[in-house]
């Protein structure tokens, strides 16, 4: 509604502020040409690869920093120092190390996912009530049993929150990662539309990217809802 009013006012260039029908027409044309499906598949493949790598690394690092003295004293300060660095700023370094291939794109996305997953997971793992840990030790539970049966279940809501933020970051960074060294992907299509001043295509691709990101968040939230509800009841 607001967008239509802005366009109808005539105060802004039509080529930069296309109407809603023009945006949908651009999306339809991309789909009809077979480009949209190809771009979605390419972007999802990269996003899932980066998300999987970053999520596993983030949770593993959180287990170490929250449950071991070496992790708290050595690894945690380093991660605290590096986490404020914008992931976008690491793109040139990733390209320098791994070139313009898939490895650099996966690395950029994984790094962006890693930070929120680690921060949230660490917060959850480190906040396990001391009474629970003492009770586990009194009952003869080893470190592995304590981790898998008490610490991780207790931290589940925080871990899920980190995964949801990480998934959102993956779809933000896919745009940056696909701007170089590829010929398919929503990020590539957005970059090409910007180069040729095709605002209708650019906005259509952004809408598609937003829908996919929202669906992925819904899948994570729905898939983890039973476990999250159980963990909250136990608390």
Automatic annotation (TrEMBL):
Entry keywords, A to Z: Cell membrane, Membrane, Transmembrane, Transmembrane helix, Transport
PROSITE patterns given in the database record: ABC_TM1
Gene Ontology CC entries for this record: plasma membrane
Protein name: ABC transporter permease
CDD domains: TM_PBP2 (cd06261)
Record flagged with keyword Cell membrane: yes
Residues spanning the membrane: 48-69, 81-100, 107-125, 167-191, 203-225
Domain ABC transmembrane type-1: 40-220
Subcellular location field: Cell membrane
Membrane topology, as annotated: Multi-pass membrane protein
Pfam families to which the protein is assigned, alphabetical: BPD_transp_1
Keyword Transmembrane listed: yes
Annotated family: Belongs to the binding-protein-dependent transport system permease family.
Cited InterPro entries: MetI-like, MetI-like_sf
An annotated GO BP: transmembrane transport
Organism: Nocardia speluncae
């Amino acid at each position: 509604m607001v967008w239509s009013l802005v366009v109808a006012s005539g105060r802004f260039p039509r080529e930069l502020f296309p109407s809603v029908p023009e945006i949908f027409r651009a999306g339809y044309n991309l789909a009809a040409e077979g480009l949209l499906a190809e771009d979605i598949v390419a972007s999802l493949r990269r996003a899932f690869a980066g998300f999987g790598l970053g999520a596993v690394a983030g949770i593993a690092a959180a287990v170490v920093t929250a449950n071991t003295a070496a992790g708290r004293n050595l690894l945690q300060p380093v991660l605290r120092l590096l986490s404020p660095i914008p992931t976008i700023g690491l793109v040139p370094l990733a390209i320098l190390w791994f070139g313009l291939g898939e490895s650099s794109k996966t690395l950029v996305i994984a790094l962006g996912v890693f930070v929120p997953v680690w921060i949230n997971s660490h917060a959850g793992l480190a906040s396990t009530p001391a009474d629970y840990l003492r009770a586990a030790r009194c009952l003869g539970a080893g470190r592995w049993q304590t981790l898998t049966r008490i610490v991780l279940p207790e931290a589940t809501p925080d871990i899920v929150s980190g995964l949801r933020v990480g998934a959102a970051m993956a779809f933000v960074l896919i745009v940056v990662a696909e701007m170089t060294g590829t010929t398919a992907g929503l990020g590539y299509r957005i970059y090409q539309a910007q180069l040729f001043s095709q605002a209708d295509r650019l906005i259509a691709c952004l809408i598609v990217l937003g829908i996919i990101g929202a669906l992925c968040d819904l899948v994570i939230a729905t898939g983890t809802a039973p476990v999250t509800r159980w963990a909250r009841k136990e608390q």
